[in-house]
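Pilot study result, target chain (281 residues):
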Amino acid sequence: MTVRVVQITDTHLSPTKPVFESNFDIVAEHVRASRPDVVIQTGDISMDGADSEDDLAHAVRRHGEIGIETHVLAGNHDVGDDPDIARRQPAHAERVSRWTRLVGPSHWSIDVPGWRLLGIDALILGTGEDVALAQDEAIRAEASSRDGRSLALFMHKPLCDEALDESLTQSRFLTPARRAHLLGLLGDDRPALVACGHVHQYRDGMIGGMRHVWAPAVSFMISDPWQPVFGAKTVGYLEHRFHADGTHDHRLVPVRGLAHHDLLLVPEAYGDIRKWGIGGA
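Predicted structure:
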């Protein structure tokens, strides 16, 4: 048996700044027509859910319109960023509590033939707050009790850029301390697949014996030189196929009609991104 899972990410929805709504409409219709078994959204569902309950509630309603079983993870625009590097919105218990009230659990797992799909909140890893400690225990338990299933880890940020022991500290990836914390929780139960979003680029590669797949955003990309090139700058979504023998494949799904928004050219979303310096959303 093969289970088809659609991964969408970085929709950045808002009732007051609807610039990316049409891309979401097109993708939602495309996904409904393809009839996958499950949809997983890997974060930044909202434009500014970290501070706006209306944005978060709107994004939840829009995702409910897809009409297919959907599991959602928080992104930095939903609950704030890693407190070690957050520019203005650190993730903390109050923001995560709002997420839990409006969206659902900040971590979850799904068992399908041959696989356990584990979704986590990457923004609170290692913060020491009660919600983060509860997630730590869940990660240990879910990773170690798979009964022979392969493990797929879904989260918002990539685990790393090029190496698990890299010292790079920036907002695109888990910081070295957060990455070490997560790998320590997993121990020998390393995932076969790490699937994420956040970078607004598509990439597929092997690092540390794990396949790392980045989904492109539904909403926008960021042009050179305002964001470095890590993979393919495009918009769209991914389809994963999880097979009962513990193997996996995926494809980047082309969707006709999507606007390839460049964030530099839509200042009504987040302002003039040139003020950020070279970096990203």
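One observation from the pilot: The first helix runs from residue 21 to 34. A full batch analysis is planned for the follow-on phase.
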